[in-house]
Structure formats: C-alpha cells, structure tokens
Specification:
With 173 residues, the chain is of the alpha/beta class. It has 6 helices and 4 strands. It is globular.
C-alpha cells in the first residue's frame, strides 16, 4: 500500500521540512516490521525530482503532485501566510482535493503563530497548535512531535484502507 503526501511549505521554512523528512525516514527504518508488508508513504516535496525538475512547469507539476497525493502536510508559519503562491495556488488545490476525495488527509503543522491563514485549514486536526509551535520547541520535543505525527499518519492510512476494504466487502454481499 503506497500513499503519497504533498508537503506544502514556504521555502524560508525548509529547515523544518528537512528535519521532518529525516525523522520520517528514520521512523520507517526503525519500525518497518510493525506495519503491513509493502506499506509506504512517499513525501512529495517540491525540491525532489519526483515532483519537479529544473526547466519543468513548476505550477503545473505542483498541482499534479497535489492531485496525485492522498493528503497534504501544511507547514504553517508567518512565511506561509505571506506566500501568494501557497495561498492562491496550493491551499485552494488542497481544499479542492478534500472535496473530491473525502479521505484526503489535511494536516496543518504550526511552525510559528501565523495570523493570516485560511480558516478552513485551521479547522483540521493538527499535531500541535499555534500556542505550541515547532519554532519554540527544543530539539527533542520537536523530534517527539514529528514521531507522533508520523505514527498518527500511518494509523490514519491503515484505518482508511480497512474502512475501504470493509465497504467493498459489504457492496459485494
């Protein structure tokens, strides 16, 4: 079972995305045997060649990555709030996907207390809050927050899969 998560963030906050990605990789290295065989989550980060390469149509590729994803992690910060591209292209596309696919996961992650963020995004369950942003956490707490988030993501995808299988079974009967 492969799942794709689009990662929405301001390039000025890449250090948080990079540290999350390291925790993400370590988590699956350490816990691989705990999850169903062939269970993988792929992060779709704009800096990876699986999303966009030099000379590609950036906007088109990001929209396609969102369409092909099973959810989005939105790193919210003051930088995110100031980004026209995120607020006019990425977030509307992410919300469109939620409308099209009800099981599409949207997870806001607060880097700092951003005043101006789409209120719809703020309505989704987050692993932390504006009152406990990543920027204020010491390294070990940030690591713990990332590991907890990753575990919740895995559990959510497993539950979604089980629910879909049960629904398919019921339709057959």
């Amino acid at each position: 079972m492969d799942r794709n998560l689009f990662v929405c963030y301001s390039r000025d906050d890449y250090e948080f995305v990079a540290s999350f990605e390291l925790e993400f990789r370590d988590f699956f290295k350490d816990t691989n045997s705990l999850y169903p065989e062939n269970f993988k989550i792929h992060l779709k980060i704009d800096r990876s060649s699986s999303v966009t390469r030099l000379g590609d149509e950036f906007k088109k590729n990001l929209e396609q990555a969102i369409e092909e994803s099973d959810g989005a992690l939105i790193f919210i910060s003051k930088n995110t709030a100031l980004s026209d591209f995120i607020n006019e292209i990425e977030i509307p596309k992410i919300l469109e996907m939620k409308t099209k696919k009800p099981n599409y996961l949207i997870v806001p992650i607060f880097i700092d207390d951003a005043d101006v963020v789409d209120s719809t995004i703020l309505s989704f369950h987050a692993p932390n809050s504006q009152n406990s942003p990543l920027r204020d956490m010491p390294g070990d707490m940030k690591s713990f927050a990332y590991k907890s988030l990753i575990n919740e993501l895995v559990q959510s995808f497993i539950e979604i899969k089980k629910s879909a299988e049960k629904k398919a079974e019921e339709e057959i009967l």
